[in-house]
Amino acid sequence: MLPGPTPGTPGTPPGAGGFAVVDVEATGRSPWRHRVVEVAVVLLDERLRPEGEFATLLDPLGPVGPTHVHRIRQSDVEGAPRFREVAPLLLELLAGRVLVGHHVSCDHAFLDREFARIGVPLPPVPLLCTMRLARAHLPEAPGYGLAACVESAGLGWYPAHTALGDARVTAELLRHCLGAPSCPPDDWTGPLREAARVPWPRLGRARSRPSGAAVPLLRREAPYGPWLPDAQAPEVVLTQAGAMRSTA
Length: 248
Prior knowledge:
Blueprint: E1 19-26, E2 36-44, E3 50-57, H1 67-70, H2 83-94, E4 98-101, H3 104-117, E5 127-129, H4 130-137, H5 146-153, H6 163-178, H7 186-196, E6 214-221, E7 237-245
Helix pairs in contact: 4-6, 5-6
C-alpha cells in the first residue's frame, strides 16, 4: 500500500497528495528570457488514479514564440489569463504532490521563474522525471524524447506540443514505468513521503480584472488516441473551458 500525505502538515491542503503531472509550452527555451504560454496539470492520487486536470493558454504579454512548434498563434492568446491570474489555483493544485514531467527539470524551471516574477518562491518540491524512468524501464526505446517513449510503450497517438496532450500522455507513461517489474517502490514512495512534508505558500486571487469579472480559461484539446497508423489525426480545438472569479 502506497503512503498518503502526513495529516496536518502545515500549509498543505487537507486531502492533498499524490502526483501533479505538468507540462508547459513557452515562448522560447530560456526560463529567464521567455514566458509560459500554456500550462496543464493532470492530478493523480497515490495509486496513480486520475483526480482531475487543469489547462489553459496564457497571455505572455508579448510574442508567443515558435508557432511552428507549439502551434499557438498570437490571436489564440487574446483574452487569455495572465500567469498571475491562474497562479493561486496552480499553487493549490501542486501543494502536497510530487511534480512529474518528461524532462521535468525544464517544466519546473519555467514554473519556478514565473512564480518568482510575482514574488512567490516555490518550495523544494520533489520531482519525478518520466524521461529518467523511461531510461531505466523502457530500454528498448529508440530514444527518450516523449514521442519515442510513448511509441515504445504502445500508448498511441497524442496531440504533441499541446500542454494538456503532453501532460495526459506523460501521466500514462508514468503509470507504464511505475508498473514495470523492474521499477522498485522507492522510485515513487520516497518522493510521495517527501512531498507530504513540504509546506506550501498561499496566494490571494489576482485583481488585474474589473471587480467580479471572470477570468476565462482557454483550453486546447484534441481526442486522445490510439489511432490506426493510416488514420488522420484529429484537429486541436481551442475552447473556453470555464472561468475563475477574480476578487475585488
